[in-house]
Amino acid sequence: MGLVSGIVVFLMVWWTVLFAVLPWGNRPSEEPVTGNVVSAPDKPKLLKKFLITTLVSAIIWLLIYGLMSLNVISFYDMAADMAAQDEQTQINANTNTETPK
After folding, report:
1. Is residue 40 one of the residues assigned to a domain?
2. Which of 13, 26, 28, 47 could form an SS bridge with 41, CB 3.0 to 4.6 Å?
3. Is residue 19 in some structural domain?
4. Rounded mean pLDDT of 26-37?
């Protein structure tokens, strides 16, 4: 995995993990403030959640990197398979649309 691919995979994992971590520990305020939704969290602890997200994402990224280094998974093979399937689908679509003579 190259540098750019590694960064893209990390960012995708990071955002996915962030959305899983955001609801953890949220408690609505006992005295809602005028202008806020009643369910708004009192203390969202975003810095803590960002740190947890980064740690979990790093572990997942290392697992993905390890699997790619051992050739257990390969983005290149996945892309080649998808391209072959797309080409076969286009061939099938063209043969089905031809009118018989």
Report:
1. yes
2. 26
3. yes
4. 80
Distance of CA 45 to the CA centre of its chain: 23
- Tokens representing 82? 């998808």
Q: What's the structural domain count of the chain?
A: 1
Total-model pTM? 0.68
pLDDT digits (tens, 9 = 90+) for 50-89: 999 999 999 999 999 999 889 888 878 888 989 999 888 8
Q: How many CB atoms lie within 10 A of CB 56?
A: 17
Nearest CA to 22 out of 47, 1, 5 is that of 47
Burial label for 53, CB within 10 Å (0-12, 13-18, 19+), is buried
CA separation for the pair 8, 2 (Å, rounded): 10
- Please tell me the predicted confidence (pLDDT) of residue 79: 86
Domain residue limits at 9 = 3-74
Give the torsion sign (CA, 93, 96, 97, 101). Answer: positive
CA distance 101 to 98: 9
**CA separation for the pair 24, 94 (Å, rounded):** 51
